[in-house]
Design a protein that fits this description.
This protein is of the alpha+beta class. A hairpin with a 6-residue loop joins β19 (about 585-590) and β20.
Length: about 800
């Protein structure tokens, strides 16, 4: 029976090739988009779910109260775990610190011949492996990191350093050219979806021998890359323990950090909370997951709508078939099953094509989103279940209503050919579904246009400093390297393609900064607002063209001799005239070596992304804090290439033990908006898919109308109708439906995109131009889709049209 249904369904589909092709094309593209979105959501919601105690593991984070509001940090002070163990002896708690450092490997005891700039060197306490679950290839989790100067590697890291992981045990790695670390264990490679992507894991007891030793006992100093995790005790709720943490912070925090509160964050929420962040900076908000899921669902609905529209439109052609089947004894139940069988075949082929399209698109998707989705996704049982459910769901959604309509024809009316497009059921529904299709498509188009305009606004916004043709290079942290900076600066300035060189802690706009308080004009109390501290030499102002509105730059010095502040800082201090601030003293950290007068005031410039307001900024010269070389290049392709080659040689000669790397400042600033760029690309893609599927449906409907109205067109042409009259006849109804869809989509698009823009301090205004562009694009694309078939129908010979049956 089922075999006969499928065979009959197959024959019917083969007879209507164009109808089948349009349905398969629309469904396959919609299902492919839905499948790709599912793979992204499946990947992002699977982070760190492999730990056995995942539901009881919490990260202890900082929520500091400031006059500007709550400041959220994922890190805590380094003594936090040790202090918690004193306060709660039975608590399972551990620390982990991430650094980006130079590792070197010696061969046969000789001088180091291999250097690695490793992004992901972690210091962890032995308790770490009691909290988290990792698979070991070699070594003992209880003792591998119990001693100083010991290191555990993942399989891939061991193979990278020593050729094979079996050869790594007992070998030595040098950390930052100073510490010899003995390899005591090998871990299996981390799963791809983890925010704790361990590669090189050093014992926490090694820290006293590194540049972090001064922070080990500093209960007030918060290090953003130092996390503290704990296992919530049984019979304890997060709320109760947060109360305990509040009392704990008051007891152990120094007086000037009394507002640095501690709270719990579930491990299961860590990947989605941008406030606290993660080590690699790649959080993925739950709002974005919901938005993507809805877009996937909507694209699938659009594809199903196409099928319903085409099937109900095709009903007239199949009315006689239904009448004959009923006369021969077929009941409605069998007819419904027959038509659902046809839908299943179309859906099955669409799913197969969608899987193929998705496998081709995954590399580009991974590159765009920074994910690591496998092309062999069919090996995942959950994906197979999703595809099976999708096939059945689409079959039901797409096929049930047309099957009910087709099977419900009166056999006598059908055999007498009294069913037409004007009287058959589903005409009003088809119009409603076309409106639904274009409503969804236009919301996506509006969203795309808003994001594109906002990104263009970011790119063209005047940041208050010159970012063009500037590269940033790192300065090694040791004193020997700092002693070579003067010589390196002179050598760089002698190169013909280099205009200027400056040393600083960071660039003007950077994620790497220090926030703190200070005392102004001999006050005994510190400011009630946090200030950005930026350490830079005097050349910094010239290189970046920072504009002075009062005073002048300070002089270069190894220690602080003068301060330059921005306009916002003076406003916070209540100083109206910038000249009045010149000569007033500032002292930071109550350190007399940091007591100096204000010598200049610069116009405000953006120190981070345009999501945030410009904060108070204080600049001073302090050589020990310099970590960045700023180099201004002469513009021009060949000049830049030659200059970069010269810089690399001079830098490598000055710091032979380190690895050369650089970054253009405009690229660094562009990275602030990487997530928005990704969102823009996704919206462009999804809006394009929605328009494509919708217009594919329009093309199919107009093709069907052209056949059904052949005689009408012939009569109209005989009576004097022009080609434009015929084209208007076919396109006017769809134009009206698209305008109705716009009337619904415009307020929806405005609401959602206005809400999205609230996340930015600096943003565009949602004017009418965006909405006019959206409707104009939709109507134009629809006319193009409809026009081809309409023109062909209009140009047909009316004699042939009138002879047609």
């Amino acid at each position: 029976m089922i075999k006969n249904y499928l065979k009959t369904a197959w024959r019917s589909l083969i007879r209507n090739k164009s109808y089948t092709a349009i349905n398969v094309a629309g469904l396959s593209v919609g299902i492919a988009a839905c499948l790709l979105i599912y793979l992204v959501v499946h990947f992002e919601t699977g982070f760190d779910t492999f730990h056995k105690k995942k539901d009881r593991i919490y990260r202890i984070v900082t929520a500091a109260k400031t006059p500007q509001g709550i400041s959220y940090l994922g890190g805590v002070s380094m003594p936090t775990a040790a202090e918690l163990r004193v306060e709660y002896p039975k608590l399972m708690v551990t620390s982990i610190l991430k650094t980006d450092d130079i590792l070197s490997v010696s061969e046969n005891g000789a001088k180091a011949v291999k250097k690695f700039d490793e992004d992901g060197v972690y210091f962890v306490e032995p308790q770490f492996f009691k909290v988290f679950d990792y698979d070991w290839l070699s070594g003992d989790e209880n003792t591998a990191l119990s001693e100083p100067n010991t290191v555990v590697l993942t399989q891939s890291a061991a193979e990278k350093y020593f050729g094979s992981w079996q050869n790594a045990i007992g070998k030595t790695i040098k950390y930052e050219h100073a510490n010899d670390l003995k390899v005591t264990g090998i871990l299996k490679n981390m799963p791809v979806n983890t925010d704790l992507d361990l590669r090189v894991v050093i014992s926490y007891s090694t820290l006293p021998y590194t540049h972090f030793k001064n922070a080990l006992n500093d209960a007030g100093g918060i290090i953003g890359s130092h996390y503290c995790f704990m296992v919530l005790p049984d019979n304890t709720t997060p709320g109760n323990f947060n109360t305990n943490l509040s009392a704990f912070a008051k007891k152990y925090k120094p007086a000037n950090h009394a507002n640095d509160g501690l709270i719990l964050q579930p491990l299961t929420e860590m990947h989605y909370d941008r406030r606290f962040g993660v080590f690699n900076g790649k959080t993925f908000s739950k709002e974005l997951i919901k938005a993507l899921s809805l877009i996937g669902l909507f694209l699938l609905i659009i594809a199903c709508v196409n099928f319903i529209n085409m099937a109900t439109a095709q009903a007239v052609n199949r009315s006689k078939e239904v009448g004959i089947r009923k006369v021969l004894g077929s009941n409605r139940k069998r007819l419904v099953f027959q038509f659902l069988s046809e839908t299943f075949i179309v859906t099955f082929f669409a799913v197969v094509i969608a899987v193929f399209l998705s496998s081709l698109a995954i590399p580009q998707l991974n590159q765009l989103l920074g994910t690591q989705i496998s092309q062999a996704f069919l090996s995942d049982n959950l994906v197979l279940v999703f595809l099976a459910g999708l096939t059945l769901g689409v079959t039901f959604l797409s096929g049930f209503y047309p099957a009910i309509v087709l099977s419900g024809f009166n056999p006598i009316a059908a055999l007498k050919n009294k069913i037409s497009t004007g009287t058959s059921k589903g005409v009003s529904l088809r119009r409603g579904l076309v409106v639904l299709q274009f409503c969804i498509a236009q919301v996506l188009v509006i969203g795309t246009l808003v994001i594109i305009n906002q990104m263009n606004y970011f790119r063209n916004y005047a940041l208050g400093f010159d970012k063009d043709a500037v590269i940033n290079l790192p300065i090694p942290g040791d004193s020997v390297s700092h002693s070579r900076l003067g010589s390196l600066q002179n050598q760089l300035l002698q190169q013909p393609g280099i205009k200027d060189v400056s040393f600083s802690h960071s660039s003007p706009s950077d994620d790497f900064y220090t926030d703190n308080y200070f005392k102004y004009n001999n006050s005994i109390t510190r400011t009630d607002f946090l200030t950005h501290f930026k350490w830079a030499d005097a050349e910094y102002f010239k290189l970046y063209k920072l504009k002075f509105i009062a005073g002048h730059p300070y002089e270069n010095s190894d220690q602080v001799r003068g301060y330059v502040v921005n306009e916002t800082l003076l406003k916070k201090l209540g100083v109206r005239n910038p000249s009045d601030a010149i000569g007033k003293n500032i002292i930071i950290w109550d350190d007399k070596t940091k007591l100096a007068p204000i010598v200049g005031v610069v116009k405000d410039f953006n120190v981070s992304s345009l999501r945030e307001e410009i904060p108070p900024v204080l600049l001073a010269s302090w050589k020990d804090a310099y970590q960045t070389i700023n180099v201004k290049l002469q513009p021009g392709g060949d000049n830049v290439k030659r200059s970069l080659a010269s810089i690399e040689k001079l830098w490598s000669d000055a710091f032979p033990n380190d690895i050369y790397q650089y970054q253009f400042l405009d690229e660094k600033i562009a990275n602030f908006y990487k997530s928005e760029d990704q969102l823009s690309t996704l919206y462009k893609l999804f809006a394009g898919i929605a328009i494509f599927i919708s217009c594919l449906g329009l093309y199919g409907l107009v093709s069907f109308m052209a056949v059904q109205r052949t005689k009408e067109v012939g009569i109209r042409k005989t009576l004097g109708a022009t080609v434009s009259n015929i084209v208007y006849l076919f396109s006017k109804e769809f134009t009206v439906l698209i305008l109705i869809a716009f009337a619904i989509s415009a307020p929806l698009g405005w609401y959602f995109m206005n809400k999205w823009l609230q996340g930015f301090t600096y943003k565009i205004t949602l004017g009418p131009g965006i909405f006019i562009s959206a409707i104009a694009a939709s109507v134009l694309i629809a006319w193009i889709s409809v026009g081809y078939k309409a023109i062909r129908a209009a140009l047909a010979n009316p004699v042939n049209s009138l002879r047609s049956e």
